[in-house]
Design a protein that fits this description.
The structure is a single chain. This protein is α+β, with helices and mostly antiparallel strands. Helices cover 31% and strands 28% of the residues. The chain has 6 helices and 6 strands; from the N terminus they run αααβαββααβββ. The chain has a 6-stranded antiparallel beta sheet. Helix 2 packs across helix 3. The longest helix is centred in the first third of the chain and has 14 residues. The chain is globular. The two termini are 28 Å apart.
């Protein structure tokens, strides 16, 4: 009887509405938003299996100018950068829209191929590089270029162990993260 009562309590806890504070606390404990979203998706039973995929968005205009991106990535005019604009999804739920400007030369050829040809999120592809997240700005709600219904906006640098910037990200989190 005690075992079934414990299961009932666990199931009820999983159905309790999550708060934005709970969600942001989960994000702040991880250097990788992909990892945080995967853990969140699994704990909240948002999909089975709880796998985060990156759905490429249609190519469009970058919300940042090239000089701004170069400054954020600490690269010179002659160095290349790339942009990956995606929806991060778990099952059928869009958890985040993200812009990720990164320096391809700071990734392995295999990582660059994975980013170009698969739905694997950047954080998972680049995880072997052991980057750390350096938060720049977190705002409850929307700031440009996020869509109107964004509940939380994060801007951050992903920094390699040698101090070089790997990526600059803008992440727009959706209400799907906190709805039951």
């Amino acid at each position: 009887m005690a075992f079934s009562s414990a299961l009932i309590l666990l199931a009820a806890a999983a159905r309790e509405p999550a708060t934005l504070a709970d969600f942001e606390a989960k994000l702040s404990k991880n250097d990788s938003a992909t990892k945080a979203l995967g853990e969140w998706c699994e704990a909240r039973h948002l999909a089975d299996p709880a796998v985060i995929r990156a759905q490429l968005k249609a190519k469009g205009r970058s919300p940042l100018s090239p000089p701004t991106v170069r400054r954020m990535l600490t690269i010179n005019r002659g160095q290349a950068f790339a942009l990956r604009h995606v929806d991060l999804v778990c099952g059928t739920k869009v958890l985040s829209e993200a812009w990720n400007w990164y320096v391809p030369a700071r990734l392995t050829p295999e990582m660059n191929t994975a980013l170009a040809e698969t739905d694997v999120p950047f954080g998972k592809v680049a995880a072997p590089l052991k980057f750390r997240r350096a938060p720049l700005k977190t705002v409850r709600g929307r700031i440009a270029p996020c869509p109107a219904k964004t509940i939380s906006t994060h801007r951050a640098l992903l920094v390699l162990p040698d101090g070089n910037t790997l990526a600059y990200v803008i992440e727009c989190y959706t209400a799907a993260n906190i709805k039951p």
